[in-house]
Amino acid sequence: MTAPIRVDDVVLARAPAKLNLHLGVGPLRKDKFHELLTVFCALSISDEVVASESEGLSLEVTGEGVKDVPRDKRNLAWQAAALLAKQAGIDPDVHLEIRKSIPVAAGLAGGSADAAATLIACDALWQTGADRDDLVGLGAQLGSDVVFSLTGGLSLGTGRGERLSPVLASGKWNWVLAIAKSGLSTATVYAELDRIRDGQDDVELQTPTDLMNALRSRDLDLLAESLSNDMEPAAISLMPSLRQTKRAGLDEGARAALLCGSGPTYAFLVQNEEDAVDVAARVAGAGVCRTVRTATGPVTGARIIG
Ligand SMILES: C[C@@](CO)(OP(=O)(O)O)[C@H](O)COP(=O)(O)OP(=O)(O)OC[C@H]1O[C@@H](n2ccc(N)nc2=O)[C@H](O)[C@@H]1O
Ligand SMILES: Nc1ncnc2c1ncn2[C@@H]1O[C@H](COP(=O)(O)OP(=O)(O)O)[C@@H](O)[C@H]1O
């Protein structure tokens, strides 16, 4: 996290979308969350949050395809501001403008990015004196993915996804994102996975050694073989058209197709930008396509940019 800068009572923060390069889903825990073993990776698309001094808490959302994003306390960014203010013992006096670029309900952690950006923007605006551990603790209360949205880069996630350890690797990979026209609810996809597993409680989580080696050695072939997501059968069961999307990208030369989190976005790994253009053209019928890169630098989580 960068040191907070205060500019004319307005703070601008940015936080990235994520991919789960590996998503191992273990058994359902007593707290109704699943035990995970996942490798998170920040993507080069991000949302921005502008926090300005105001009386009371208010929120606006701008960008494409944002009509389904709540503008009230159901919004994770709203919850982030309210929680930080409560923790600091102050009133949540802020107007939040969320500038969305991350597709909504797409498995890319857009809401978590907004919550993370809001935490650091409001912390700077209100000068709460919270340290990084405080913000991480608040992030974990808001959602399982928010801690990664604060952290960025490349991390191994355990617990319900909130316990992170850095993966020491760097490199850039090209992906084409095939974004479906409608979203999938994370809770519904987890429930569908439980239904498919039908009470099987011996699911073992294993560290994805091949994936780690691929990332460290920047080996595209090994990376293509070692991407995996346990949620894929559940997402396809709920949205069977995903099968065609996956086929289309692979037929056009994508090296691998990875379902993003709980879906329904597919991320196609491609060798270079030329292949990205071909794959994007072929899967365009399935929804909007974007070409993005994974950014596996040291810190690309939520940060103040103005
Ligand atoms: C699947 C993943 C993979 O990174 O991402 P998305 O597809 O949502 O982006 C995450 O586990 C989503 O994390 P997040 O979106 O923060 O979910 P939360 O708000 O914490 O939880 C929403 C619901 O998902 C289910 N849930 C979430 C996390 C987890 N480890 N086990 C679960 O079973 C629970 O039903 C929970 O009530
Ligand atoms: N700031 C936000 N941006 C997007 N969606 C939000 C936000 N706050 C709450 N939501 C709700 O969370 C749901 C999941 O959105 P999102 O975080 O984009 O997807 P995912 O959990 O698949 O990564 C949305 O359908 C929306 O109702």
From TrEMBL:
Keywords: ATP-binding, Isoprene biosynthesis, Kinase, Nucleotide-binding, Transferase. Pfam families: GHMP_kinases_C, GHMP_kinases_N. Residues 213-285 form the GHMP kinase C-terminal domain. It is an enzyme of class 2 (transferase). GO terms for biological process: isopentenyl diphosphate biosynthetic process, methylerythritol 4-phosphate pathway; terpenoid biosynthetic process. Catalyzes the phosphorylation of the position 2 hydroxy group of 4-diphosphocytidyl-2C-methyl-D-erythritol. Belongs to the GHMP kinase family. IspE subfamily. This is 4-diphosphocytidyl-2-C-methyl-D-erythritol kinase. It comes from Antricoccus suffuscus.
